Predict the 3D structure of the following.
Amino acid sequence: MARKFLYFVALLIVMVIAALLALRIWSAELTRFAFVPRGAFEVQQPLRAGVYDDPEMWVSRPGTAADPAQYRPEGTPAAPRGRAFVFFIHPTSYLARDHWNGPIADKDSRYRTALFVRGMASAFNGEAAVFVPYYRQAAFGSFLVNQPETLQARALAYGDVRAAFRAFVAAVPADAPIVLAGHSQGALHLLHLLHDDVKGTPLAERIAAAYLIGWPVSPTRDLPATGMPACTAPAQAGCAMSWMSFADPPDARLMLGTFRAEPGLDGKPKGNAQDAGPVLCTNPLNGGSASSAPGSANLGTMVPARDLKSGKLTKLGIPARCDAQTGLLMIGEPPDLGPYVLPGNNYHVYDVPLFWANVRADVARRSAAWLAQRPARP
């Protein structure tokens, strides 16, 4: 009987090892199989004109009941409100593969959207107001393949975001500074907004800062096309911050492979891994002034509860270093923030919570710098 039990234990160990080996070798293939939509792309009409005048089309905006963007984790110090208005584009929350674009009314994605906004957009609520629109986001699986449906899904989502942005601009005071932020898919759409609706327009003078978080940005093919420089000082206004957080040892092949296969915002190819160079990385612990910062510079990490519905601001001493070869933001040994770390030690979901207090301070400094420079502006 004891021998049979030992054989059973040995078999379980072999099965676990085999499963882990298969996940390591075929993780990309298994991820695509689980999430890439199977059906045809569904052509949909643009949203009707004026639809974003409806408060129901916003996850967050002034007057929203139980606004997730206004959440403040335990331990958040009191501070005076800033004067900037924030437009935040939420990351992908539609994980199903039934459609290439998530329906705005989908209950599951709305639930996850609120969680993401609570954990990320809340870092920006020290300013005057945070606006976060619902939109027909491209499905998570659409970012795992390079197919015609991928571009179609993104274009549909971007059309919604662009309409929401124009409604936001029309709604906020004409002389107020604006902070733009997006995470993951939201950062991709923000890149295009900067290129299409901001660069070379009077609106560009109103941008206190842009936060392109959790999406790979090419310093040569993407950033110049936005009209914004990378931030190189903590009190610099009118610049862009960008980072993607990974712990040791990192594996970003799936994300960077898809990124390099696509042309840049300027329409030109990025090249292969050798030619493309590192992605843009601005260290959130020091406002981009240096590539590396010790854990002592981390003002506070928002450690979320297991259900992500709440969090506590805690000084965990998590450092940050922009890797010179890849541009990934390395945070050292994997910290325990919860069960949602992606394969390859990818802390994608925690890109903002890792540096929550620093992001909050960064936004305040750049908004104040914009206001200080305002008399010199035309």
Q: What stands out?
A: The CA atoms of residues 5 and 11 lie 10 Å apart. The chain has one domain: 31-376.
